[in-house]
Amino acid sequence: MKIHEYQARDLFRKYGIPVPDAIVCHSVDEVEAMVPDDNRLRVIKAQVHVGGRGKAGGVKLARTKAEAVENARKILGMNLKGYLVEKVLVGQAVDIDREFYVGLINDRNAKTVTLMVSSEGGVEIEEVAKVSPEKIIKIPIDPLAGLMDWQAREAAMMLFPEIRHVRTAAGIFQKLYQLYLDTDSSLAEINPLVLTKQ
To answer: Do the beta carbons of residue 166 and residue 160 sit within 8 Å?
Structure first.
């Protein structure tokens, strides 16, 4: 079973993984009613089970409430790679400095859960795997021991030079692993995991 981004965000919050604020809207009228008129930068995202939503026109930025409403009008009802868009996620845009990828997958070749991290977040990770596989670091996890603290820190050190970022990222990796186990997932990923300018 695949879940939508808004459902994943709820799970992330439950496990203490930080996510920006967002609301789900099923109509343009809901966007009009629920989005405050505060001129904050927002992102409007189609909620469908496909990748590459941004390139297909299913992700748009809005600098005003009026722009958010207009972008929701453009996205809702559109056909996105064979899927009808029936809801949008309207979220606070983040001041991104760098993007990373982190994921957990049931690796059939290694016959274990594997933690994957990459400095190439924000793009389709499948394309990175084809073109530049060396940019994806894979760490097999012993099913009896689980994701060890040192493994999470080691993975984080491969992405971040500053120790404060390493500690935060390692904690996120551990929480994502616990979520992965508790929900009996076959894939759990954060793409992108971002470092903000703040």
So the answer is: yes
Would you give the distance in Å from CA 171 to the centre of its chain? 16
Q: How far apart are CA 176 and CA 190, in angstroms?
A: 9
pLDDT tens digits, residue range 10-58? 999 999 999 999 999 999 999 999 999 998 999 999 999 988 888 889 9
- The residues carrying an active-site annotation are 101, 189
For 72-85, the pLDDT digits (tens) are 999 999 999 999 99
| Contact by Cβ (8 Å): 39, 63 | yes
- The answer to whether the CB of 24 falls within 8 A of the CB of 6 is yes
pLDDT of residue 153: 97
- What is the layout of strands, in order, in the sheet containing 22-25? 22-25, 88-92, 42-46, 59-62
Helix (H, G, I), strand (E, B) or coil at 92: strand
Q: Which two tokens stand for residue 28?
A: 């343009």
3-class state of residue 16 by DSSP: coil
Give the side-chain half-sphere CA count within 13 A for 7: 10
Residues 44, 68: contact at Cβ < 8 Å?
yes
